[in-house]
Design goal:
It is a single chain. The chain is α/β, with parallel strands linked by helices and 305 residues long. It has one domain: Ribokinase (UDP-N-acetylmuramoyl-L-alanine:D-glutamate ligase, 3-Layer(aba) Sandwich), CATH 3.40.1190. Helix content is 38%, strand content 20%. The protein is built from nine helices and twelve strands. A ten-stranded mixed beta sheet has the order 3-2-1-4-5-8-9-10-11-12, sandwiched between helices. A two-stranded antiparallel sheet has the order 6-7.
């Protein structure tokens, strides 16, 4: 069966976040993509001005009804979800995921629980328990950042080391997902006692089905980018589809290699344009990174944890 992804995420006219960050890489790696947009914005919300619309639950139901009436729901092998801006949409999304799983019990659901970062939620607080108790149990793969993982498990403070992060990952596994990937984390401490090495952030992946738990130390870039989490979730979906399940560490390495390649190209292009640190110039250069997305060169290798 050909691989086809229903990707339910945000859309921006200008820039690369949400579905704009996920669709092109997924297609390059051999998957058909049907994009269903949770919001339709002029640009991402880091800019000074944002205009556009948000879908609510009734509007999602209407779109899915069209797919259902035409017998199209059975075609999906994967579903990928990202930013959801309202509890109404999330409740309808849960029903959609359940229907997709009923239509194709082998479907793989990758959930990027986009809720916040750097200690701040950018979704309503009421959505946190809905994500944790209704969406996460349906997922096969979950890709939170550190703040989202801490929020999902109700941590009272940021994780001081890998020990607490791995325990939180185990708690998410208990909700149902077989794979949990902590896409970015920084525990401080200079690498001792489970802390992150100086000048690095950590990517931690856990595959309960194979018993593999890996960490990749990634050099820190002193720059803020948008869309890297969306891109990471899409690439993880693609590489875990392309590779056998026992090559989960290799899939993680290829994801990280692609992300690093995209960020290097983005920084190079921004420097060439003479404005290296604005939102406009830090938009991901996905088209220019086609080669590294298709054939990532692994330079950062995983270690077992």
């Amino acid at each position: 069966m050909a691989a086809r992804v229903l990707s339910i995420q945000s859309h921006v006219v200008s820039g690369y976040v949400g579905n704009k960050a996920a669709t092109f890489p997924l297609q390059l790696l051999g998957l058909d993509v049907d994009a269903l947009n949770t919001v339709h914005f002029s640009n991402h919300t880091g800019y000074a001005h944002v205009k556009g619309q948000r879908l609510d639950g009734a509007q999602l139901d209407d779109i899915v009804a069209g797919l259902r009436l035409n017998g199209l729901l059975q075609q999906y092998t994967h579903v990928l979800t990202g930013y959801v801006g309202s509890a109404s949409f999330l409740r309808s999304l849960v029903a959609v995921i359940r229907e997709l799983k009923q239509a194709n019990p082998a479907i793989v659901y990758v959930c990027d629980p986009v809720m916040g970062d750097h200690g701040r939620l950018y979704v309503p607080q009421e959505m946190v328990p809905l994500v944790r108790e209704q969406l996460i149990p349906l997922a096969d793969v979950v890709t939170p950042n550190q703040f989202e993982l801490e929020t999902l498990v109700g941590a009272a403070a940021p994780f001081p080391s890998h020990v607490e992060a791995l325990a939180a990952i185990d708690r998410l596994h208990e909700y149902g997902p077989r794979t949990v990937v902590l896409t970015s984390s920084d525990f401080g401490g200079g690498g001792g006692g489970g802390g992150s090495a100086a000048g690095t952030i950590d990517f931690i992946g856990s595959n309960r089905a194979t018993g593999q738990r890996v960490k990749i130390a990634i050099p820190r870039l002193n720059r803020a980018f948008s869309g890297t989490g969306d891109l990471t979730a899409a690439l993880l979906l693609a590489w875990t589809w392309r590779l056998p399940s026992d090559q989960f560490p290799v899939a993680c390495e290829k994801v990280v290699a692609s992300i690093q390649g995209v960020l290097k190209e983005t920084m190079r292009a921004a420097a060439a344009e003479g404005d290296g640190d604005s939102y406009k110039h830090n938009e991901l250069r996905l088209i220019q990174s086609k080669t590294v997305l298709e054939n990532p060169v692994v330079e950062l290798f995983s270690e077992r944890v």
